[in-house]
Write a structure and sequence with these properties.
The complex is a heterodimer of chains A (about 300) and B (about 600). In chain A, about 30% of the residues lie in helices and about 30% in strands. Chain A is an alpha/beta fold. Chain B folds into four domains: about 210 residues, no CATH class; about 110 residues, no CATH class; about 120 residues, no CATH class; about 110 residues, no CATH class. Chain B contains 23 helices and seven strands. The chains are: A alpha/beta (about 300), B alpha+beta (about 600).
Amino acid sequence: MLKIKDLSKKFRDFNVLDHVNLNAEIGQIYGLVGSNGCGKTTLMKHIMMIYKPDEGDIFYNDVPVVEDSEIIKEFYFVQDNIFFPYQFTLSSLFAYEKLMYKNMSDEKFNRLVNYFDIDKNKKLNKMSKGQRKQAAFVVAISAQPKVLLLDEIVDGLDAVIKRKFWDVLFQEVMDNEMTVVISSHDLKELDNICDRVGIMHQGKILKEDDLEKMKDEIKRVQFAVDGEYEISDFKEFNVIKSVKIGSVNFCTLTGNIDEFRKKLEKEYKVLLFDRLSMSLEEIFITELGGAGYGTEKE
Amino acid sequence: MEQRKNKTFMPFFLNSLKAKSNWILLSTVIIFVTTLLIPYILKADGVDAYFFMGIGIFEAFVMVFVNCLIDNSFFHSDSKLAYYKSKPVSLKEQVVVNIITEIIFAGLLLALIVLLTSFQIKDYKIFRVFNFIIPWILVVIFLSALSSILAGNTLAAGIMTVFNFALPGIVYLIIVFIFSIVEDFVAGFSIDVLENYFLNNVYKLEYIYFTEYLNKPLGYIYFLILGIILTVITLLIFKILKKRKNENTGNFIVFDGYKYFVSLLGSLIIPAFFTVSNYSRNIISEIIAALMVASLTYYVLIAVVEKSFKISRLSIKIFAVSMVLFMAATGGTVAFASRYKDVVPDVEDVKYAFVGSNGREFDFVNKYIEESGNSNLSYNDIIKLKDVYGVILFTEKENIRNIIDLHKEMLKNSSYNNENYRYDNLDITYFMDDGGYIIREYKTDCDGADAENGKKDELALKILNSNELKRIKYNYLYDEEYCKNNYNIEISVGYDFNEDIASDITIEELRPFLIKDINKEYMNTDKAFFALGGNFDQPYKGFNEPSPYLAITIRDKEDPKAYYTVQTLYFNEGYENTKEYLKSSLPELK
């Protein structure tokens, strides 16, 4: 299990990370989502010990992750702003990294090169951004790490390649019990693949839970009643958001939905009542809205 | 916690070496062309061959320096650093691999230069230049790694490498700056004397920079110094690497402490240059100017490093505190020196005394004693000191007493009105019986309104007319024993060093006339004090006109190539008896 406990970091006087707690199980894909500049990349760089925390600890299977420790050798980080050593091709990059990663698999590398149809002898710096991401991903998977950190890995990729990415990733997580932490702004994509999600804002993790549980916690209903619906009468159901479009009300709440319906039926004549499914994007907007993000008026 | 094992080190190192192949090829071609091909086409030999060897060494330096900066440039880009830092090979190992690779690269280039130039160079002593070139290149390799860790971008890393390399020199310059302030405040304490003493006895820059070994065989001290320097830099690399805040990558300097260190030293260097190089004697204006220049330099440096015209309060506080500390250190040095300002020794305690304007007499005498291994100097030793270094040491108590009295006069009033002649300093040095020494240098303000000449001239005249001085300075005339020995003394006569007149005049025939003239000259001089600063020679007024002169050269019979001119007497003034005698045998001499 990858565990981050009370991690804090200041850049000068600015709190970049503020008592961050993160828990990702082995064999889990953890989605790290958040507002722009909330500290996702900084958090990943702390996990890799590129940056040193001011406070807090990181553990992998209860072993502290510290600079130059043996355990961190099993971690692999693919950054958003990908860098490759000068003049390297995918082949030479693989050969170079094979010197450092003990589990680097030739078989996996060749299979993935074919699968993604990449020219392994082309200079990496001459490849497009999407091709470079694929190359980095191929080498990362070939390294067979225990923890794989992917920062904005699918941003800018076409749908077909994205699908290939997820297929490979699922397979690896299942086969090798890899822990994957993935950050992305493409919440629809993460919705389909993440087991667990952490929502970050202003250096803090506002909410972290299994995605399904999160979806169960935050519910959305649409209903129509005879007469004017008064939200103030339903405070005990933790109504986060309530919008009326035409005669239909849309409510986001965390309270018990059956009780909510019962009370609604008691107070009003209910003409329509449906429970709607929540997407990660909606959960994200709801959580960040609760933190005052995106609710500012012009 | 299990630490990483070094299983990856060797393959990583071999890979790094392999990646260097293109640079090795390029450098080989450049050095081959500039140190062998071009000299061969131009048929260069002798000094020209040395020049091309120098070019080759310079190229090797540039190549190694550029490679060091490139290899360590991953510290200066977020994405590069994130890539390398996230790999299983630690940054420490990567830096060590880079250093070893650069050392091998530098070794290959220097070996190539030696190989290629050995075809053209006849005097292999020139290869002694590598006695300091090798340490320099090693230090540059280590320092560029350290500077790359300290700096946030590659340009700053390059500048910081040069800065760190020059650091011993910069520290020296700042200490000289303090000496210049001491000189202004404490009479008798000269910047030149303090600087010479400090360089020769405390802060041996020539050893730190290995230039001492240009003409000296290598010994264990050489390897010890090199080992210490490289070890200190290596330990600093490891320490700084652990402390590095990688989030500051992209700034000029990553460490705040180092940023202030560089800016503060920079702010002292400029006023140090300014003060040491000017001739102002107004202490207050010098200090105000130095403070203004220091503040301005500090502001500019901090503004550049922080990339902001608005500098932080912390920066201002650090500067203020540092300046207070600097002034306290300088004030302490001045106060310490002031305690010894009026110290004058007892005649009985002085073994040898020097008066004159040599400026380096203390070093020369010490060097002579060190080489001869005997601190009790004989008359012959004193003659050798005079012949080789131009230092006349007095041992007779009467002369020592006169020098002490003159010293007391200088403490009362150091001004001396010597009319049209410029005469800046009078050095007085005592070598004490107990092995101690007192060194003083007084500025003789030549246009001082309160100048007092009488007593100074009186005491100086006693020294000038002493038999001891004549026996040392004109030993070839006054020392009967010397005149009888086997040395061959040649006399040549000429005009203004350009027109020699052939002569077979001997010292034996000229000796009585010279003795007569010298006795007369010294007895009559009214500027005796002035003569002390002019190597006990008479003030020479006719320096704008060609003058006949008499050069007296001593040639060793056993080794005719070994000769040196002990005396050149100008005839513009005085030497009437000698001149008359010469005119009779040399009609060319008017």
